[in-house]
Amino acid sequence: MIDDFYVTGKADYEIEFEKERVELWTALHREISQFTRLKGITYLEKGCLHLSCSDFGETYTGGHDWKNYRAKFSVTPMVGEHHGVNVRVQGAIRSYAVGLLPDHRVGILKNENGYRILAETDFDWHCGKEYEITVCVEENHILADIDGEVTLKTQDEKNPYLTGGIGLSVQKGSHMSCRKITVS
């Protein structure tokens, strides 16, 4: 029996989904180890976490008190046009995302009980191809790199989120998979 458990220090670890498992909470409630889910369908297949939803789905991990960090996601968009990796997650209605967007765009978005684009540019992404998306958050600065091909940056001046965990998100019937996440 453990009464109390504390984690301190800066995040510095890697999640390889081939090593994770499905946790069965009840006959109908299943979660992926180390993650919590707002909504959507999550499952493990072929060493990847899969997330899909008809409207929007999100899954999260990490600490609410994480400050400045770098998160690297190895993700594959499977179906649809809205695939995101999230940083500074403070719950279901507060986070930032780097998203693969419709019309071959990529953007940095802010979730304020609904996502809005802070910065975006062209990026010829395709379903079925794995992308390495790296996001660095330092105070109110957000820097994103996709496969070393495109870099986006922004500075959030209006009520920035300065702490929070990480996650994955999809919208409008999209389905994505994630093989690995590294946080440092």
TrEMBL record:
Q: What is this protein called?
A: 3-keto-disaccharide hydrolase domain-containing protein
Specify the species.
Blautia hydrogenotrophica (strain DSM 10507 / JCM 14656 / S5a33)
